[in-house]
Amino acid sequence: MAKGKMTRCEKCGKPFAAAVKACPYCGAKNKLSKPSVFKTILSVLAIFFVIGIVTSIFSGEKDDGRQNEDTGREENISTDQEPDTDADADPVDEQEALREQFNESLGEGSALFYKNVRNDVTGRWRLFLFHSGENIVDHAIDYYSAYFESDDEVHLAVNLGLKTTSVITCSAGCLFVDVHEYIDKEEHDAKILGSGMLLKQYIIDLSSGEIDDIYSSTD
């Protein structure tokens, strides 16, 4: 995968990937981010396709109604059928199962997830607090599947084992992971959360799983 282009936030001055629509730290819009023309065309074609299907369905229902009126017959509907044992599971249960499975992959340490972060003015920050010797980057796609509910969220994974705080965002089919040095008790306040020294930056392709190391403080 090609190296990701970096930029700096005009509001807070922190570095982040240019492909991201907004600064993951303060929420300011990224003027360098441009919508994909290809995606726009696909969206328009999809809308016309859906309209065609809906029109066809309604037309078919009208034809069926006329046929029933002409023949004067009605279909008998059975009410003594057994319930479908292959029905889809509750999405909430599936999400909880994914989270339990992910937490187990990090080892025996405890893990806590918070949907709110103190002093977060965007309302989009999520906090994952855990203690492990595992690098969150190696599990980033599984974390995304387990904990992300929307791609506009900003997740901050604080690993008290490795003393790192990873800022995880999603855009254009990729995860952007900025690994910072942990600051004591930063998980209690959004004003300092993720403000430690930048150690590493990664871009992870969600479809292929390829991890691209785009920055290291030791280079």
What's this entry about, in short?
By secondary structure, the protein is α+β, with helices and mostly antiparallel strands. The protein has three helices and nine strands.
Describe this structure in words.
α2 packs antiparallel against α3. It contains 3 helices and 9 strands; from the N terminus they run ββααββαβββββ. β4, α3 and β5 form a beta-alpha-beta unit. The chain is α+β, with helices and mostly antiparallel strands. The radius of gyration is 24 Å and the shape is globular.
Shape: globular
Counted by DSSP, the helix tally is: 3
N-end to C-end Cα span: 20 Å
- The strand line-up of the biggest sheet is 3-4-5-6-7-8-9
Strand count, sense and barrel status of the largest sheet are: 7 strands, mixed
Average of the residue pLDDT scores: 82
β-sheet strand percentage = 15-25%
Radius of gyration computed on alpha carbons: 24 Å
Number of strands: 9
DSSP helix fraction? 25-40%
Low-pLDDT ranges: 73-87
Order of helices and strands: EEHHEEHEEEEE
Label the structural class. alpha+beta
Q: Main traits of this protein?
A:
219 residues; alpha+beta; 26% helix; two-stranded antiparallel ribbon
Describe how the helices and strands are arranged:
Blueprint: E1 6-8, E2 15-17, H1 37-71, H2 91-105, E3 111-114, E4 125-130, H3 140-147, E5 154-159, E6 164-171, E7 174-181, E8 198-205, E9 211-216
Parallel strand pairs: 4-5
Antiparallel strand pairs: 1-2, 3-4, 5-6, 6-7, 7-8, 8-9
Helix pairs in contact: 2-3
